[in-house]
Amino acid sequence: MLIDAICLSEHFMIEGHEGNLNIDGYNLVASYQRKDKKRGGTCILLRQGIEYEVLNIASDLSIPLKFECCAVLLKEVNLIRHSQRGACGSKAPGAGRGGDAGAGAVGRPRPLVVRFTRRAVKDELTAAARVRRGATSADLSQSSAPRPFYVNERLTKYNRQLYYQTREVGRRLSWRFLWTKKGRIYARQGQDTPRHWIRSADDISRVFGVAS
């Protein structure tokens, strides 16, 4: 996976030599370098095709040897950050396919947590993932043996535990549809039955007809 942005400090180039920094597939979009002193300096390289606007005020605020910076404004950015959570091989309530999964069974890679800047993009991704149930790592052009992967919304700790309980009861009673959408938990017994919004343990008792 290509990195979108590379930010470097202490690039050691003086003014007029910044063109010497060439990385295939990337453009040098902003930089600050000292006029007559070596060392120091900062710069930003972006993957080709990414739209941006240079924020010149950052360089204007720079003070050689004390505070040196550069900045750009990225346009149409959907992803804030991504990270992996949990230790490989652990298994906790709510782990696996439901909600904000912890690490799964032994040998399963840690979950990848992605945060978006816009809810609409997240909703579009989760909707597309529901359409492509059964997708495997082979669909991502991975060379390793195909393994299924799942895309789920990240839930609050309370909703994650509630969703785990909902799935346990729903599956035991053979309910066909148990899912989350926009942070909410839903259950439906069959194709033509009403949808229920699960907000508490009392809702589980009421909807499924079981003791809390």
TrEMBL record:
Residue ranges constituting the FP protein C-terminal domain according to the UniProt record: 156-206
Highest taxon in the source lineage: Eukaryota
Protein species of origin: Plutella xylostella
Full protein name: (diamondback moth) hypothetical protein
